[in-house]
Specification:
134 residues, alpha/beta, four-stranded parallel sheet, 7 helices, 56% helix, 10% strand
Length: 134
């Protein structure tokens, strides 16, 4: 299994208290423990570090994500992400610019997106995005 793990799942996994019993967090743990390909990208790191104030939590995130495969957007990925967002909008689904870029990276790198964000589930009905479990 090859996954791009969205901010929503990492946020749950790194909660200050114990992580909730959410299936996506369990899938992430299993993928990491089982040696499956788990990828991230710079915008996901940005979103996580922006949301965690304590330096200790930021350091844990940097260390954890630093060992993953990193996929970064090319110029054509930005163009394709705009197209995904426009396709979704025409279908009545709102997909932010960042979410469209994350979706494009998952599509371009043949990764299933592991997320708890229902916007991606709705978008996947209109674009070739594979959302894990959807």
């Amino acid at each position: 299994m090859a996954l791009l793990v969205d901010t929503s799942v990492w946020s749950l996994a790194y909660r200050r208290d114990s992580p909730p019993e959410v299936s996506e967090v369990g899938i992430l743990r299993d993928a990491l423990a089982g040696g499956d390909r788990v990828a991230t990208t710079g915008v996901i790191l940005l979103e996580l570090l922006r949301g965690f104030v304590p330096e200790s939590a930021q350091q844990t995130i940097r260390e954890s994500l630093g060992g993953l495969d990193v996929v970064e957007p090319s110029w054509s990925d930005y163009e394709a992400a705009a197209g995904l967002s426009n396709t979704c909008r025409r279908a009545g689904v709102q997909l932010s610019s960042i979410d469209a870029l994350i979706a494009q990276l998952a599509i371009a790198h043949d990764l299933a997106l592991l997320t708890t964000d229902q916007d991606f589930v709705h978008a996947a009905r209109h674009i070739p995005l594979r959302v894990w479990g959807a």
